[in-house]
Write a structure and sequence with these properties.
Layout (H helix, E strand, L loop, with lengths): L3 E2 L1 H12 L3 E2 L4 H4 L3 H11 L1 H5 L2 E4 L11 E4 L6 E2 H14 L2 H19 L1
Helix pairs in contact: 5-6
């Protein structure tokens, strides 16, 4: 799968953390976006805004299809440490080293915050 890191999502995650809009120790299965919530968010705020919540994009798949945006990292309100961990782990299983590294880079901020 020719997916690539969504640099807009990386920047957005950093911005959200700077603004204090993050969650530590959340349960990802209870917070990850559903297909319905993602579609509703995209309908209300636009596809580009919705894409900022996904760590990767598949440019070979048309926007709006379920396989275009991959590895969600937040719930459309906050970036979640658990979402980033899930994205990193899934990317590792999928053999997507760049995506896993991007997730790990953002997770480093969480690790530094917890060390204080």
């Amino acid at each position: 799968m020719p997916i690539k890191v969504n640099e807009a999502a990386v920047a957005h995650a950093h911005q959200m953390m700077d603004e204090g809009r993050y969650r530590i120790n959340s349960v990802w299965r209870d917070n990850k976006p559903t297909v319905g919530s993602a579609a509703a968010y995209a309908a209300e705020y636009g596809a580009d805004e919705a894409a900022r919540w996904y760590l990767a994009v598949n440019p070979d798949v048309p926007p709006g299809s379920p396989d275009h945006l991959l590895y969600p990292i937040g719930d459309f309100s906050n970036v979640h440490e658990s979402g980033l961990r899930a994205a990193r782990e899934r990317a590792e299983v999928d053999g997507q080293a760049e995506i896993a590294a991007a997730a790990e880079d953002i997770l480093e901020i969480f690790y530094r915050m917890n060390a204080c």
